[in-house]
Amino acid sequence: MGYKFLKSWLWGNSVALSWLWGLGLFFSVQMTFLFGLTGLFSFAFLNALGLFLFGYGTQKIASRDKGSESLERFFKRWSKPFRLSLYLYQLIALTLTIFAIIKYLVMPLLVSFWPDWETQSTILQVFLLLLVAALVISAACLIGEEFTIKTIKYWHLFAGILILLSIISILCFFSPSELVQYSAWIKIETCKPIFWGYLIPILIGFFVGPWLDLQQWQRAIEMRKENVNISVSYMWGGLIFFFFLIFHGFLASLVFNNPWFLPNMTFVGLGGLEYGHDLIVKYMLHFQSVFPWWIPTSYFIFITLAIITTLDSGYIATKWFLKENSKSSNSPILSMIPEGIINSPIPTFILAGFIAVFGVLINCEIEYFMVFFATFFVAYAALGIARCFVPNSQHSLPQVKLFSIGAFSLVIFACGYFLQVAWLMILGSILPILYVCWLVLNTDLLRVVKEKVEEVMDVASEIPVLKSISKATQTALNGKIKEVSTGSHFEDKWFVHSFMATYADTNSVGNVYFGVYALWVGKTRELFFNYVLPDFDLKDTKYLILTRSFEHKYINETREFEKISVKIRVSEYNRKFATLSHQVYDSAGNLLGKGKQQLIFVSPENYKILDIPAEVLKAFMPFM
Question: CA–CA separation, 172 vs 192, rounded Å?
Answer without folding.
Answer: 36
